[in-house]
Amino acid sequence: MRLIPIYLGALLLPWSASSLAAPIKWGFSPSDPPPYVVMDGASLQSSLTKDLGQLVANATDRSVQFIPVPNNRIDDAFNRGQIDIICNTQPSWHTHPEQMLWSEVLYEDADVIATRSTSQPPSSINDLRGAMVGTTLGYHYSSKLTDAFESGQLTRHDVRDLNTRIKMLERRRLDATVELRRPLQHYLLGKPAGIRISDWEIERFALRCATPRRPEDHRRLIDAIHRLLEEGQITDLVDRYQ
Question: Are 189 and 17 within 8 A, CB to CB?
Fold first, then answer.
């Protein structure tokens, strides 16, 4: 008679272990533009970040908790254990990338120049000499572009968001803006504007996921991401946001 409850208990163990697993604490920068991040107040909406986090959570049979972290506090959030993982990043953006596990590249993006469609698109920084250039507050640009700002060759004008920069560009309050290609293309699909995107890329980014090396379940997150990459599921997800 005692064999029955023991057997039933053994059957329930996998379900119980899964249901009690801690949620994945998925960090993200709320300042990342759509389609990477879409916010409604303090709530993360359907976006590349949210869909990717849910995909990895499903693959690891865990739930996921999305935690907003400013870009300049991501390393501190890792050190304090506030987040388990963050994606849409690359090693050069972290103080000690060697202390983290890195996924393979998920997708790429690049800083490009947007100008009015009536202007000749620039192919170098020299083509922008004397321009008032819209930029993102707190964003660190390539060394060449930073040098051009610091030397006065270009004038940097920090603007709150992509939508405002495009409006300022159309109204001739800016001569050009620096944007990530994917968010800019995504924006123009929904709000067509008289804007031209340069073929010239100021800087190209190979974007990955990163997680601390400990505890061991962090490695399982990276392993799951690699399986999803091999199966093409992450590529399919990214393609939906092209």
Answer: no
